[in-house]
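Researcher: For the annotation table, I need structure tokens for Dopamine receptor 1. Please keep the output clean. Sequence:
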Amino acid sequence: MKNNSIFLSLLILMNVAFNIYTHRSFVAGNILVCVAIYTDRGLRRIGNLFLASLAIADMLVAAAVMTFAGVNDLLGYWVFGEQFCDTWVACDVMCSTASILNLCAISLDRYGRWVTRKVAIVTIAMIWLLAALISFLPISLGLHR
């Protein structure tokens, strides 16, 4: 019985260490993508605006979603209250939807060079607006229960 307790404690400790490492890697990696696009003139192409938006969406998933999911997984229950749970779920859906829509925009941009700087900025704004509407509106209206 004591060996099982030690093994379980070691397993939890390794899980926490792995989660902290991956969480920091996800955030740092996506920050580096944004910094590279911003600072390197060769990367300041219109199509890379979609990559920066994708990096921001993925960074928000790592920072705002995975952090609380890790705590929930470790404890086995939600400790942050019902209202924050709804906000957290909406944020998860919004960032995931924005990530998927950014991937769609990247693939469309790769097929044809139809995108001007203005079109790219408007498209990115629409991606985030649509993602916010898809996530926060149903949850704030209580349609997810």
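Researcher: And a one-line annotation?
Model: The chain has four helices and no strands.
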